[in-house]
Design goal:
By secondary structure, the chain is an alpha/beta fold. It has a 7-stranded mixed sheet. The protein has one domain: 3-Layer(aba) Sandwich (Rossmann fold). The longest helix has 17 residues.
Length: about 190
Amino acid sequence: MVAEAARITLVSGPASSGKSLWAERLAIGSGLQVCYLATGPQLPGDAAWQARLLAHRQRRPSHWLCREVSLALPQALLNLEHGQLALVDSLGTWVASGLDAAVASWEHHCQDLEAALHAVQGPVILVAEETGWGVVPSTAAGGLFRERLGALTQRLMPCCDAAWLVLHGRAIDLLRHSEPVVEAARPRCTP
């Protein structure tokens, strides 16, 4: 697997595509201690969300560390210890945590995440949802989520040494089988 040697890996796909399973497989294959960074809320009153969280917990190896980080993702990445791999699941829930942030504040969060990815000592696997493949969101919040997540994944792609698109339970190596749509205006992230 290419991602075993990658410093930053992006794994994206639509809901229930298998992207988290693929990211977990890459993490296991690394041989490193995995620190799972959960960005989603607890939502104790939401039974469907609780079932989803439980399924993720039961699937993960019991020796993995797990930290619930919400918007503090950049700080959590910087706190990783030598020999750890961070599995971030997911950028979509991280974006959702910051939907109420004003544009300038959101930009600051994104800059902090980019800086953390640049400075992090170990490998990172980022899981991200693909949005906008279907119906246009009917709410302003849905549209904002789609725009922020899409912009974030495009912004972070130059930082990535590996990228996978997961569809229907199949992983496609994006860097091997794709070309950039436009040359990035931003310089490539380097360690």
